[in-house]
Amino acid sequence: MSVISTRPARSGRAQELGLLSVALISVLSAWVLTYYGVNSANPDQALPDNFFTFGGAAAGVLLLCHLLIRRLAPYADPILFPASVMLTGLGLVMIYRIDFQLVARGASPDARGQLILAIGGLILMVGTLAFLRDHRRLRRVTYISLIVGLSLLLLPMIPGLGVEVYGAQLWISIAGFSFQPAELSKIFLAVFFAGYLVAQRDNLSLAGPKFLGIHFPRLRHSLPILLAWLAGMGILALERDFGTALLFFGLFVAMLYVATERTSWIIIGGLLSTAGVYLIVQVMPHIQARFTIWLNAFDQDVYDAQYGSYQLVQGWFGMASGGLFGTGLGEGSPTNSFAANSDFIIASFGEELGLVGLLGILSLYAIIVTRAMKTGIALRDGFGKLLAAGLGFAIALQCFVVVGGITRVIPLTGLAMPFLAKGGSALLTNFIIIGILIRMSDSARRPFVPSSVSLSTINTGELPANLIADEDDDLESSASTEAEPHSAEDSLATTAVPRITDGGSR
Amino acid sequence: MNLAIRKLTAIIIVMFLTLMMAVTYIQFIRAPQLNADTRNVRTLWREYGTDRGPIIVANQPIVTSEPHDDEYKYLRTYHQPELYAPLTGYFSTTFNSMTGLEREENSVLGGSDSALFSQRIEQLITGKQPKGGAVALTIDPVIQQTAWDALGDHRGAVVAIEPGTGKILAAVSKPSYDPNLLATRDSTLANESWTAMNNDDQQPLVNRAFGGKLYPPGSVFKIVTAAAMIEKLGLNADSVVEAPFSYTPPGTTHEIFNAYQQQCGDGSGQVTLATAFAESCNTPFAIGGVNVGAEPLVETAREFGFDQDFTIPLQVMASKFPFPEDTAALAMDSFGQRDVEVSPLAMALIGATVANGGVMMKPYIVAQTLTADLALLSETQPTHYGTPIKPSTAAILRSMMIGVVNNGTGTKAGLSNVQIAGKTGTAETGKEGGDHSWFVGFDAVDQPRIALAVVVEEGGSGSQVAAPIAREIFASAVNRD
Q: What DSSP state is assigned to residue B430?
């Protein structure tokens, strides 16, 4: 039924161009404000060095990207690209701002490197659009994705390649360039999960034993989630990367839920992660310390301890000193916090842009994520739905893990804030994700053009009743958790009959 | 799957709302607490980095913030450092501390006072750097300087009050210190200065004027005893009192003599109260205090402000009159020895109360607080602090204090053109030649301009040392315009 669309097709390209201008102007203004801020409002010249060069180049690059999107994905969602540009730009401004204090301390600046990476990200995004003309082609590489994803995840453990940073082994170093492969493996694993789950969803959603009013899957069908749980715990144990483990396990559970519409998976996932975290905390002092910091950050002992809560509390002090409206860009002291331009960049924004600015930034993320989810809803194929929802959820969960860690909603982990934080692997990966999302939103929003036979020849009134019921399954089957015996048969039956929702454009 | 995606979207929205609430908690709800955390160096930077307002005496700033090229941007500068140190205190980034008015008036000087709210909003909108407000003092710079000079090289203190209002006209403590040496950004210098000042046996950091240390009052306390004798025993200036050569309080063997074991009056053993007061005999007041009784005497002292902490807004240590343990203690306390200890401010306040007809005005030192643009924020209004004695008692005390200056121990405080009233004191410290020299008095005119207390540590006789100092200060206060 989702095939029929009476809405006139709107490409949204004009909106995208408008929003892109807003993003560019905002970022350039933030740059100028920062410049005035760090120079105590009395700079040597009216505008920063090379303002027109960089501003013009940025406008040119963004316009080029826009034109390429216009050509490659004319019906793409008009918000995804400008929102990610805005966040990346703000991140660049903050990294540039932190550079002033880094240079004053004799450290090397980061802004130029990040700018190059941002351009690289845009190239990868457009490249993704150019090479991936139909997202469903990704389904063909389901198992290759699994292998690539897991390999990437395991790379840092290869001796001589992996580098240990701040007690977690999640970086690799090749010829002087360091890279965090877990970021990239996010995409591959999302593709694998989507491909695997869309094929297995009916098996996984089969009714199992009922306990406390909830249907639990049969043990053999629980195997994947158990394996994913074990894999997550394995990463956690071997690389001591709490954040990545949480991210992958959360991603898997969320996609499993979307595929099967069974709440039981979420409950099982929650129980498993609680149990896993509990076990890990018992045996690993590194993680245990994180929990102590989380629970007792303001205790003097914890604050004074080596690798204690000092950094976290400094971040809080910075955010508190920002208050409602912030100190103004360039006028706070964000480098009092550790990693002010990467792990703690959110605290830096909180300090200089205030609560208002931080809520704005979080809203931008919420917009990107909800656009991804909207894309998932609008897409006509199960694989695309799962992939869009999965990628969207991955961004949301990453924000939650990072900001939640800084605000002590959850223990602090070492993940990077998407788009904002300094760090090449994350930035490049996130632009690839935006590329995939733009591709999918293009096919979701594209007016349906029947490729061969006009669908109007199919009169749903003539179809068997069980097939029509199944079409509603997408919307309502989770409501019918009281699986009567025949509904299971229905589900089985549908696997044999081509489904209009999935197969319409196949 | 769409329903599941919608539900997942709802979960995501909940996740973001959780983050937003957490951020709001930190940056709004808990921000005041976090900003007040002593570990928060940003608060220090902001506090020390604001353009603090000046402290003003008679339209001249005595403390200002000068632009300075470092993290804090401004350096607190004290223009007459030693003269005003007991009032201003210091504002030190090295020690992360502030004292004196820098601390008590920090909310105005630092610009955080709620009265400065509209100014802060304006600064927020115009983007101007926040600026603190100014504090104007009641100090009369001429009297302050005269008192400073008159004390010379002595250790001691002077406090002068305007009797009708309670304005503090002068507050000098000697020796003093240079707050600039502690406010400096050179932390080595600041630390060395601090160590030197702290180890100096002259105790320059002690604020003698406001009870940084308390002194035995000696005979100046007889004002209080005489007040109690007049009020509780119904005596007046001409009442005849017992004035033996020596007096042994009942139940003890401790013999009390007059100063230098002299006779009192004509040696008959009976003198008028006025004569006993003018000659500062001890036995009549020891006997008088015992006759009044411990409880009424302590009560009178309390009405004069003993045993009460107060702020002006600087903290003033309460003068002490602990309940006498026996009659001997009561007799000794009655002429200001043994357990009685006072601050110069408290004694000046007693003098001011007599000068003001028995009405004690609350002493204060901040005349006005002003915004950064010197618009008036608040003005301190004189307030009644109590009425420890009746107007008739005040009149009797006044006449007896005039007698002290005209034909008693206080002649060296007298001026030729203005009638001065006062009381001298020589407080034994138990140290040979270590008596503290006291003078408490006021100009005995219709509207007295000044009441003061002078104490000179180990200065010797009150009539010889403190009285001439008081005279110079009186001269500077009344021989003007």
A: S
